[in-house]
Design goal:
The structure is a homodimer.
Chain A (H helix, E strand, L loop, with lengths): L5 H22 L6 H8 L6 H4 L3 H25 L3 H4 L2 H18 L1 H13 L4 H27 L9 H21 L6 H10 L20
The first copy, chain A, binds a DNA duplex through loops.
Chain lengths: ~220, ~220
Amino acid sequence: MPKIADEARTARRDQIIAAAAECFARAGYHATTMADIAETAGVSKGTPYLYFPGKEALFIALYEEWDCGLAARVDAAVGGLAEPARRSPRTVLAAVASAIAAHVTGNPQTCRVLMEATTLAAYEPAIAAKVQAANAASLDQLTGLFQAGIAAGQWPAGADPALRARLFMAGLYGLMSQWHLAPGTFPLQAAMGALAGTDAVGPGEHRGDTEKKGDGT
Amino acid sequence: MPKIADEARTARRDQIIAAAAECFARAGYHATTMADIAETAGVSKGTPYLYFPGKEALFIALYEEWDCGLAARVDAAVGGLAEPARRSPRTVLAAVASAIAAHVTGNPQTCRVLMEATTLAAYEPAIAAKVQAANAASLDQLTGLFQAGIAAGQWPAGADPALRARLFMAGLYGLMSQWHLAPGTFPLQAAMGALAGTDAVGPGEHRGDTEKKGDGT
DNA sequence: TCTTAAAATGACTGGATGGTCAGTCATCAT
DNA sequence: ATGATGACTGACCATCCAGTCATTTTAAGA
C-alpha cells in the first residue's frame, strides 16, 4: 500500500531540519515560529508535525544532526592525518581545532545553534541532557588525548589532563561565542590554532611562531 | 509638589531590576513574562513600565547594572592588591580571574544573564551593541595588561597581546558557560586560576602547582 | 486504470503575552 | 486639614503562536 518511500521520508525530514537550522540561526529559538520553518522548507504548517512531535523535539533533532556533523568532521580530520602525525597528540589537537574552525567558518549557523542550545540547556531539561552528554563525550576524548600527550612528554609530566581538556574546550567555545557576534573582527582559524598550539601551564615547547595577528576589537 | 523622593525611585528601580535578574536567570529572557517580574518585585503589572520603556530596555538596564557589578568587583580586586603585586601583570591577571570566579560562584545568576545576553545579542541589535561594547572594553584592558606583561618579560617577547587577551577572555567565558550547566562538576575558581596561571605558548615560569583536580564530566 | 491508505494541507483554536490606560490612592506643600 | 500632583493599579486589548484535525492530494499496488 502507498506508503511513501523511506528515501523520500528521509529527504523531507532533512529538508525540514535544514529549514529549522536556517530559521533558528537567523532568529533564535523563541523568535522562530513553526510557520517560519514550514515556509522555509516549502511545506505546509502541519507537515513538520508529521516528522517531529513538536518544536522542542525538532530543535533537539537538529542539534544532534549538527553536532554529529561536527564530530564527523573532526573524526575525518583526525583520520585524514598521515600515520606518524596521528600518533602525536599535539598534532591531533591542532587538527581538531583546525577542523572545527573550518567547519564553523563555513557554516556560521553551527555557532548559532550551538550557543542557542547551550543557553536553552539552562532551562529545558531535555536539551540540557543532550548538551551535557555531548560535552561529556568531547571532554573525555580530549582528556584521553592530553593523557597520551603528557605520557609522550609533549606536555609537562605534572599536568592534569582533565583540566587541560576543560580549558581547551572552554577556549573553543568562548572563541566561537566571540566570533559569532562579530565574525569579521578576528580570524577564528588563527585563534583556534593558537589555542591548540598553546601550552597552558607548561614549559613552552612551542613559541611565538604559533601566534597570529588579531585586531583586537 | 508631591514628587516621590529620588531615593525611593531608585529603590523601586533596583527592586524591579533585582526581580528581573531573578526571573531571567530562572527561566531565560523569552520565558520570563513581565507579569512574572512584576509579581516577583511585588508590584503591579503596570509599574515596570513606569521605570523602563519595555522588556528589552529592562533587560539592557539589568545587563549594564550586572556587568558594572562585575567590572567593579574586578577593579576592587586589582585595587586591593599590595603595591608591588599590582605592578606584576601576571599577578593582576590572577586577581582578575579570582575575582570573577568568586563573584560568579556567589551569584550564579550572573552567569545566566551573561550567557542570555550573549545569545540574544545575535538577534537583537540593541543588545548586541551593549555586549560588543563591553567585550571590546574588557579586551582592551586585558590587551594592555598582556602588553605590560610582555614588556616586563613575564611572557615571551614575540607574543601577541591582543591574541592572548582574546584567548583569555574566551577561556573565561567558556568556563562560565560550562559551569552554569553543571555547577557541581568542577571547581570554577581553580579552573579560572589555572587559566590565569597558564602560559599560553610561553616558557613556563609557572608549573604543575597551578593545576587542580577537575573530575572530568 | 482504478482503488485505497498514507501524506500533505491550511483553517482553526485555546491560551498566553507585551503593552495600555482610565481610574485610585499616597504624599507633600500650603 | 486639604487638595493637587504624580505614583501606582489591574482589567483590558490586539496580537501571536504551538499544535490539531477534517479535508484534499498523492502514489503504490492490483
